[in-house]
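Recap for those who missed Tuesday's class. We walked through two folding examples back to back. For each one, the amino acid string is listed first and its predicted structure tokens come directly after. Nothing is annotated here on purpose, so try labeling regions yourself before you check the end of the notes.
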Amino acid sequence: MSDKLARTIQRFQTKIDSGSFYEAHQTIRTITNRYVKAKQYTEARDLLYQGATILTKNKEYASASDLINYLIQVYDEEELKITDKDAKYKLIELISNLPNDDPLLNDLANASISWSQKSSVCEKFGDSDLHHLFGVKLLSLLENDADNNGVAARDAEQKSKLFAIAELHLVLGTFESVPIYVSYLAKTAQINKDIDPGVFLSRAVINYAYLKNIKFVKEAQTLFFEKIKGYVGKEGEVIKSVEYFENYPLLNFIQLLVQTIQKEPLTNGQKFLKLYDHYKLLLKQREILAPVEYLGKLYFNLNLGSGQGGNMLANLMGGLFK
């Protein structure tokens, strides 16, 4: 850090110490503007990083979030890419230190993911580490809300929307995202013991299958079964590594689906069709017929059903990242 920048930070810290948070925030913005106009991007980034860190420590989260958002804008103007490890991990650090209920968290998610997509290494979905970060924070917010039984608890529609966003981030996240996502699904299955657990496992399996991420599909299934063993009752009959449960036909289907999509298209297209025909009515009842038909197209080039519904993960992404 240059002497000039160090002096600026010291003046900023003095304003913070005196309780002049708004003035301190505006001072950082004003000086950053000058650096950006002069294309002194390193100084601008350092100032925003230090300013946001100090504001966060003083629980001035709204001002800190604003400076983090400005930092992303500077990354864009400087044409820094997500491959710049220092830029990426400083951003992750700053966002990690914000509270999970920060009202600007979704805005920061959209801005940072959009920035990461400008790099060729992750232009399709954005950076997986960033997705993991936002998925974990949003899911933690949802779980804390449930634990509080709260005064400010969200209604069912709000919880559904929050979970949909958290779920998308976790599905597009890292391998470390899988146990966090699956653990939540298993807990939800345990709460709803009158529902076939396959309803919950199907979310992870179908979402990861959309991405052709078989490694994550298999891990999700393994972890889910480890977590539900205690409450599914009597173990089912195991045939060729599939555990059949008399009372959970959808759970049976999902296991068979996982096996089928791992095989070569030429040999397993017919197996998929038989599986689809046998469980079609059940899939329709559980409202996952269209996603399964999409997987038939994706993996085996099968044209099933009306073609309506399609890739719901892609549809959801289109609605969130604009």
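Example two. Treat it independently of the first, because the proteins are unrelated.
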Amino acid sequence: MTFYQHRGVLPHKRHTVFKKSDGSLYKEQLMGMKGFVGVQSILYHHNAPTEFFKSEYVGKFSPEYETQTELRPRAFFTDISKVDGGDAIQSREYILGNDDLIIGIAEPTKPMDYFYRNSDGDELLFVHYGSGKIETTFGTIFYKDWEYIKIPIGTIYRIVPDQGVKTKFLVIETTSWITTPKRYRNELGQYLEHSPFCERDFFGPDELETHDERGEFEVLTRKHGQMHKHYFKHHPLDVVGWDGNIYPWRFYILDHEPITGRIHQPPPVHQTFEGHNFVVCSFVPRLFDYHPDSIPAPYYHSNIESDEVLYYVDGEFMSRKGVREGSITLHPGGIPHGPHPGKIEESIGAEKTEELAVMIDTFKPLHVIESSRYMEDEDYQYSWVEIESMD
């Protein structure tokens, strides 16, 4: 998913003289994917983006996974997280991951007093609740409840929650890119008529605020699973203008228009995004199936080659018992999964659902991060067992 946008002031032609009022040149930077043949944006800085005066090696970014356990459904209650505040990076608590992505939550209680740059892959933040702003190289995005925010690989940013307002993010960090499904775009990249969203639903930075102050500014950089610090004597968000197809954007989950039918529709109709070896789906309030004998609840199914993760946002999820707002469930490939006992019968005749959830399907196995085990509901795996009457 790429379409051209621009902010700020730009020269008429790229790679040409672009002068400041004092006669000096703005510094042009091309930020591109796949060398020089992928999508790209061009940014114009007050200062050279290469101009750091000190660097430090911080250490390895290596969440520790649990040792191998039995194959079973898993559930985690993120509302009992023990991470005691911090900023939007410090408060990240990771729960699941593999070589393609890592999934967790963040509940920042203070603004970042430094900047962050993930040069390993795109990040997707889902705002469960809260409001604030994300200051980036491309400008500022103001976030609110139930928005997805994509931060492209290599983007320098910091997150500033609104004071006195609690913020909670579902965090998806990748080692690739995040885009929309190819089947919803034509050969020129425009969304097709049957797509559940269109270009009008995606918003780039709300404003470009250019900083030209001097001082000491820290940028924490992640690359190849290693953490580094770079220090600049100029503010890193010093861009006066940019244009192109790479930039952070936001998408409100309720702008995903549900696709419904006479009988139960499979999960791919809920897909909103995709990356390398994973997809992200949005379960939004919708009308149920309208065949007179339809069963709205999903049928039992075995996605033998994929793992399914659900993050429960709001409402009562129509096929599950015992989960609550902020729960994360993992249904691994290789064994079937489906509705809890009674949920199939309960769904018959229902006209709609108000559930809201984010689903992540991966095509490589996910592993549980050891430090998150205290959040696990150990009884979840047995919740499909119907207790027989003792009469």
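Answers for example two:
The first strand starts at residue 5 and ends at 8.
The mean pLDDT is 95.
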